[in-house]
User: Fold ABC transporter ATP-binding protein from Acidovorax benzenivorans.
Amino acid sequence: MSFLELKGLSKRYDGVTAVAACDLSVAKGEFVSLLGPSGCGKTTTLQMVAGFVQPSSGRILLDGKDITEVKPNQRGLGIVFQSYALFPHMTVADNVAFGLEMQGVAAGERRKRVATTLELVHLGALAGRYPRELSGGQRQRVALARALAIQPPVLLLDEPMGALDAKLREEMQIELRALQHRVGVTTIMVTHDQAEAMTLSDRVVLMNKGSIEQVGRPFEMYERPNGRFASTFLGKANVFEAHRAAPGALVEVQGHRLPSSDTHCTGVMEYIVRPEKIALVPDAQALLRGRVNARVFLGNHWLFQVDTPLGVVQVTHANNGLPQAAEGDEVGLAWSPEDARLVPREGS
Ligand code: ATP
Assistant:
């Protein structure tokens, strides 16, 4: 059942199509991320849902009602911006009470709701402080509390962790996820950070150049990207231009014959293997041979760059002790057919 629906939603500025005919259905209680590179139209899409940007065409439906022409403040949505936009001259409690006051909620009820919402984000003890007296993470929680206090049907988050450092960002992601599960509020978040999208979302909406490229659960999308863009934006991937004459035949990559369990695809395509799916093996078992030109230690894994006749291949292995090869070593590379994904070649 769809709770929030975007139907053919587009936004054009003079000569620029920021968002092109996007269709998306979000279920009640779902956490969906709009993910993509800078300029792909994520923020414009979110702003249209918020009501700050008027679509050039298309409709937005909330719980079955068309809200495309409804003013932002009458949509009753909770919004958190990257900058938080807290009122500096108001205490934490007053910041959180602001939306309730706007809605005309009576003082007694307002106090109760402010207290419960602040408890929800673990800020009960800081109700009397001013924003300048808070850490970045605490400010972010105030912004969340302010958005949630009005009990919105949908929570909109625009790069909500953008101002936090990497470690705090990770902590807040886990916290936000738990909070969203507890409250059950339908949430749409804009991010350009694939790890953040995967950590938080039930489904990821991958955008590129104003259009939706792929929608899916994080694991699904990582395992089965539908093209070069999806495979390289969500994680790392080795992508080779390939060709197959008939269904079920081996795939031809620059004269090398490689296996894939995607048996149906034929013609020109791309052959995709994730770095962590590639094993270093003895020559007899190798699909491809090469020489390690660089080996980098990255804490939880090793990255090997291997020069092969097909170009540089990246291989990553979990750090389970000593690495399997050194710079300069000749190595054999192998992977299983299930780990080789075939997708249509972009632009073909
Ligand atoms: P970022 O991650 O950098 O914020 P984004 O994916 O959110 O990027 P948008 O801000 O939605 O991208 O912009 C999409 C496209 O629309 C860009 O090419 C941008 O330059 C253009 N655009 C956005 N707002 C306007 C505007 N008010 N006038 C003209 N062009 C605009």
In short: The two ends are 36 Å apart (CA to CA). The pocket of adenosine-5'-triphosphate is lined by residues 13, 16, 18, 36, 38-44, 192 (CB under 6 Å).
